[in-house]
Design a protein that fits this description.
This is DgyrCDS13429. This protein is an all-alpha fold and 295 residues long. Helices cover 54% and strands 0% of the residues. The chain has one domain (4-207, 257-264). It has helices at 4-18, 27-39, 49-72, 74-84, 91-94, 102-109, 118-134, 153-159, 177-182, 205-222, 226-234, 268-294. Helix 3 packs across helix 4. The two termini are 40 Å apart.
Length: 295
């Protein structure tokens, strides 16, 4: 079930995440092309099927590493938590993205530039993201034998869960084999409650983008030693003094059922008014993108 307020918040976050592309090229592509041009150690034939298979596996493994770092390094989580902040799970959730994540993702793909042609990388990274769009759904249960190999809606529902058994699991982009290999796989066992461990109480897309950075800044200033200050930035979001790098799993709060979703009950006419302005914003953004493409 898609709620208007949540869907608008998710799509707004998606629009915000794309704003830097109106003023320049994607930093991931720029860095990849630069590394390939100046530091490549081999030149794979872009027209070879083997190259495309290497690209597929390399990009998917790179995404796994990026995604895992986004959950296990607090600074990266400050960006990635935007995607997890919705208490709903539907196709609009897939669009709920951070404006900052692209500025840390390049480093996980740059090693591929040492041998992989840029055009192969660009095709695979786009298809990798496109594949992940459709798995944001509760309408599909399980997919039989494909559950052993592919990332599926069931696997990704676990990833978006805030139940303790779901935390830091199923980082896969396309292939779930990486989670099975590296010990981060978790099957869907019982009802999943979505969102952050401590749910946000706002629809404001700017607050959603910035809230965890503010929290890190407060924690950073509260810590007394330089080691603890750095740990606040580079260890997991659940870390605090005296705990392991990722925090203590037993400190995660259990989900109370029935789950009460954050919501606002507004007059019908007010929803129509806001939705109309939202449509105008989308049209304006589309025109800006077309203008940038032409220029």
């Amino acid at each position: 079930m898609m709620r208007l307020n949540d869907a608008m918040s998710s799509i707004s976050a998606g629009i915000i995440s794309q704003l830097p592309l109106l003023f320049g090229r994607s930093i991931e592509v720029v860095v990849f092309c630069y590394v390939h041009k100046h530091y490549k150690i081999a030149e794979l034939n872009w027209n070879s099927p083997i190259t495309w298979w290497i690209g597929f596996l390399g990009v998917d493994l790179g995404y796994y590493c990026l995604h895992r770092a986004g959950h296990e390094i607090n600074l990266f989580w400050a960006a990635h938590q935007v995607h997890h902040s919705s208490q709903d799970y539907n196709l609009s959730t897939a669009l709920r993205q951070s404006i900052f994540q692209r500025y840390c993702s390049w480093m996980f793909y740059a090693p591929l530039a040492l041998f992989l042609p840029p055009q192969v990388y660009m095709v695979h990274v786009q298809f990798n993201l496109l594949y992940q769009y459709w798995i944001h759904t509760e309408l599909i249960d399980t997919l039989g034998p494909l559950e052993w190999i592919m990332n599926t809606p069931s696997h990704h529902r676990v990833h978006h869960g805030r139940n303790p058994y779901c935390i830091d699991k199923n980082y896969a982009g396309t292939l779930i084999i990486w989670d099975r290999l590296f010990g981060t796989f978790q099957a869907e066992e019982r009802e999943v409650s979505y969102g952050l461990v401590h749910p946000l109480q706002t629809w404001n897309p700017f607050n959603v983008q910035l809230c965890h950075f503010k929290w890190i800044w407060l924690r950073f200033n509260q810590e007394k030693t330089i080691l603890d200050k750095l740990s606040t930035i580079f260890k997991g979001p659940g870390w605090h003094k005296g705990t392991p790098r990722l925090g203590k799993h037993e400190e995660l709060p259990e989900v109370e059922y029935p789950v009460k979703l954050y919501d606002n009950h507004l007059p019908y006419w007010y929803n129509i008014y806001v939705f109309a302005h939202f449509l105008i914003l989308i049209v304006a953004y589309t025109e800006l993108v077309q203008f940038k493409t032409v220029n």
